[in-house]
Amino acid sequence: MLELMAGAEAVLVPSEWYEGGLPLVALRSLSVGTPVVVTDLENICADVLADDVGWAFPVKNPAGLARTLAGLIADPTLTRERRSRARSSYERRFSPSVNLARLEEVYRSVTAGSPAR
Predict the structure, then answer these.
(1) 3-state secondary structure of 92
(2) What does the alpha-carbon distance between residue 71 and residue 53 come to, in Å, rounded to a whole number?
(3) Dist CA 55 CA 105 (whole Å)
(4) CB within 8 A of 83, min separation 6: which ones?
C-alpha cells in the first residue's frame, strides 16, 4: 500500500469523522512524501494546511471535492512542491522519534508531578 501511495499524485482522505488529529492513512501518505486531500474538519486539515502539504475541501460537499481535485490536476507544479514538503512535515510533526520524545515528556512530567506541555 505504501508503494501505491508513494506513486500517487495525492491521497484522498474524505473523512467525516472528528478524530483526534490526522487519520493514519494521511500520516502514512505524508511519510512517503505524498500530499493529501482532506476534509476541512479543523482537526484533520489544520496541520495539512499549516505545512502546505495538501488541500482541504468542505466536508459532505461533492462539488467542493470536485473543484479541489480539478485544481490539483490543473496545477502539477503545486502538487510537486507539496510533495517535496510532505515528507519533511511528517518528520517534523509525526515521526516515531518525535512521538517518542512527546511521550517521554509526558512521562517525565507525570513522574515529576508537573503538568505536561
Answers:
(1) helix
(2) 14
(3) 32
(4) 33, 34, 35
Q: What CATH number did the domain enclosing 55 receive?
A: 3.40.50.2000
Assess contact for 48 and 56: CB atoms under 8 A. yes
Nine-digit cell string for 78: 503545486
- Round to whole Å and give the CA distance between 115 and 8: 42
pLDDT at 116 over 70: no
Q: pLDDT tens digits, residue range 18-75?
A: 877 899 999 999 999 999 999 999 999 999 999 999 999 999 999 999 999 999 999 9
When divided into structural domains, the chain yields a total of 1
The answer to whether position 27 is within a domain reads yes
Give the separation between CA 14 and CA 95, rounded to whole angstroms.
23
H or E segment at 12? strand 11-13
Cell 502539477 identifies what position?
76
